Amino acid sequence: MKRLLFIVVLIAVPALAQEHMHHEGTMHDAVAGFLMRQASGTSMNPAAAPAHMHMIEAGDWLVMVHGSAFLNQVWQSGPRGGDKLFSTNWVMGMADRKLAGGHLMLRSMLSLEPATITDRSYPELFQTGETAFGQPLRDGQHPHDFFMELAAEYAVPIDAQTIGYLYLAPVGDPSLGPVAYPHRASALEIPQATLGHHIEDSTHIAMNVVTVGMKQTMFGAALSAFHGAEPDEHRWDIEGGRIDSWAVRVTADPTPNWTAQISTGHLKKPEALEPGDIQRTTASVGYSTPAWSSSLIFGRNDKQHGPSTNAWTAETLYQLAPLDWVTARLEVVDKDELAESGVHRIKALTAGYTRDVWSNAMLTAGAGVNLTIYDFPAQLEGTYGRNPRALYLYARVRSH
Question: How far is the C-alpha of 188 from the C-alpha of 190, rounded, in Å?
């Protein structure tokens, strides 16, 4: 797989660039717009989704900066509940310029969560995936790596309706799944992770990613090769790893308001403490207007050793007034790590409200609250109690 991708890159991409160096004007604008739409790796929100970023021209480069930071206090009830003050955050910098008939985009995404989330996790009832202090996480969410993405991407017009691209990232997001939850337009005002994260979009931080793809009018397709293991719990480094996994994704953008994707990928031993490989398949639909964004997401993990698990997520964000945001997330997630054996279906409903309280030309600050209620099998009541709840109070700063 690795050799095939690099043969395609070495032969096809330079030839396309030379053949189409004369393409200017609207195709250059289309290529630049295509790259700017990408939210993580080569995944995209609907074109109509608001772009909360600050842009600066620096010579031949167009530099874009955007990000988000939440200061959260969470209280959870029940025997497995926990309380904590912590911050979830990320910042992305992008630089784009014309090059050899196409556009070159350099992108980095960083997070200070390794410092702002102590003890290598924050409490989240029924959450599973990855490790902390050598033990599998249960009822907790791990921080993101400091290096969430370091990538270079070259996109070139092939004809008046087609764009070809190459994405290279020592740390990046392969062509598997929807836009990851920290960057999804419909999750803009929800600071905590989805319970289906490790079934739907956990590959948004992967090592040694190579993606080649094409977009023609409303349709697109991409193929990735990458290192399949999840990042380790030492969050400040880049651990690398040989390319041993693959993913393929097809997309459709019938109008600026809608986007959809179907993807599947083979992950080589993604979990450090679980044996075997995983075949992950996802499908999603996103809808956006300037004031409203919603997503429907499905994910499935077929494990080499262990039961298959599914996850469904429906989330929405609506700007009720210029300063007021309401949000909701409904999840139905299969978990096979909560007890010694068996798959348990967890249902969670989160509803929240955020009010913007200050802004300038670059930043918007707000404060908000959300509440999560759960439904789960009766056999787990001895562990979680009858009616656990999670309450978040948070302050938020994001790019304007």
Answer: 6
